[in-house]
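Hi support team,

I've been running sequence recovery on a batch of backbones for a student project. Most finish fine, but this one hangs at about 90% for roughly twenty minutes before it completes. I'm not sure whether the input is malformed or the queue is just slow. I've pasted the structure tokens below so you can try to reproduce it. Let me know if you need the job ID as well.

Thanks,
M.K.
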């Protein structure tokens, strides 16, 4: 497998180098966290050859003895060197029972620059504040973006590459498989591991059927407003006992594991976040296709999911906009910036253009407005609204 540097993440690690906080790399299983850690280690070796780099992959059986926190602590303290920078890099840290005890003790010494990765289910964002109170910086890693997929595939036909990416997605391990059956089998394996092993084990669930059904419902309803009560009714119809509180808990588990990202609604006129009826987007478009195939396949929803995840990658806080009875697909905010965005498949008809532009034109502030669609053309302006081709926008345009 050809290794692609991920400069967005690597550059951030470089900027964090030497900072006192524990650097924690999070993200869904198999999205490239370990390779990123290795790339950073190679950078330190090249730029600081005199430094003391201590690396332990706890998945490696050679390091099985380090899966106990006293042993892990002793391993690094015994290798400390005076007069140079000491780097501690731990991969798959969750395999060490009570790993936080060892990591916090190393941190308290004030002489180690610490970087760790771990399984998404056992190193969740919600757990970090408990494990490392006020002592960490989280670097969240997503699957390959379309721009990274282009770099990996070296396909010079941007439109053909995009059509492949919509189904293949950004999970780099899937690129090793030439047949679609093998690739989707690999993606289903990741999904099932997260559900049946990670989440079931972490939360000690007696049965994972309702959790799996909840995940499949979210996959089948990408882009739809969703409530736990609605999912609960569907599960009851299928003979499963799960009230809305249980379903809400399952949704939270699925988001904590980074299979899905919640996008709340935002009242554009009132400038406030609404607390009901969110939307959920999958971490990578390959999961819906691998789990559900072409059943009810909707390219418009798939495109909407791609835009949501790309906005998150680019550092925006993302909402679904509500303006009276109209809906704006996304309100993307970053510091003092705000962008209103509509997403659709085909924008060729006048009726579609008017439908998509209508909610944007009804907004009375001066923030930028966009329609992102599969136009296959260079950008153009429609009544003051920027219209961008989805593939070209994903490939790097801001």
């Amino acid at each position: 497998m050809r290794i692609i540097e991920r400069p967005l993440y690597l550059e951030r690690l470089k900027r964090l180098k030497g900072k006192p906080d524990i650097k924690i790399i999070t993200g869904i299983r198999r999205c490239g966290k370990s390779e990123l850690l290795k790339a950073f280690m190679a950078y330190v070796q090249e730029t600081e050859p005199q430094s003391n780099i201590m690396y332990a992959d706890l998945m490696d059986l050679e390091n099985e003895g380090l899966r106990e926190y006293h042993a892990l602590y002793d391993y690094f303290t015994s290798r400390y060197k005076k007069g140079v920078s000491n780097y501690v890099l731990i991969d798959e840290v969750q395999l060490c029972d009570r790993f936080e005890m060892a990591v916090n003790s190393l941190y308290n010494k004030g002489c180690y620059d610490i970087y760790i990765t771990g399984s998404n289910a056992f190193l969740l964002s919600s757990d970090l504040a408990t494990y490392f109170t006020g002592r960490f910086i989280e670097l969240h890693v997503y699957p390959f973006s379309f721009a990274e997929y282009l770099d990996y595939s070296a396909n010079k036909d941007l439109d053909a590459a995009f059509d492949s990416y919509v189904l293949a997605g950004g999970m780099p391990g899937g690129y090793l498989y030439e047949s679609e059956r093998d690739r989707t089998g690999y993606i289903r394996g990741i999904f099932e591991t997260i559900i049946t092993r990670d989440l079931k084990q972490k939360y000690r669930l007696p049965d994972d059927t309702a959790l799996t059904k909840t995940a499949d419902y979210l996959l089948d309803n990408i882009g739809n407003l969703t409530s736990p009560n609605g999912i609960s009714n569907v599960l009851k119809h299928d003979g499963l006992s799960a009230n809305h509180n249980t379903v809400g808990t399952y949704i939270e588990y699925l988001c904590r594991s980074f299979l899905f990202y919640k996008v709340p609604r935002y009242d554009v006129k009132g400038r406030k976040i609404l607390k009901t009826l969110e939307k959920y987007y999958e971490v990578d478009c390959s999961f819906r296709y691998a789990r559900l195939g072409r059943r009810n396949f909707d390219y418009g929803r798939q495109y909407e999911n791609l835009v949501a995840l790309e906005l998150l990658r680019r550092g925006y806080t993302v909402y679904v906009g509500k303006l009276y009875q109209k809906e704006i697909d996304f309100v993307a905010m970053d510091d003092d910036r705000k962008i209103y965005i509509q997403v659709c498949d085909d924008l060729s008809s006048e009726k579609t253009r008017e439908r998509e532009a209508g909610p944007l034109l009804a907004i009375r502030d001066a923030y930028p407005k966009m329609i992102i669609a599969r136009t296959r053309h260079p950008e153009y302006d429609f009544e003051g609204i920027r219209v961008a081709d989805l593939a070209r926008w994903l490939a790097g345009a801001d």
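--
Follow-up from support: It reproduced on our side and the slowdown came from queue contention, not your input. DSSP finds 15 helices and 13 strands in the chain. No action needed from you.
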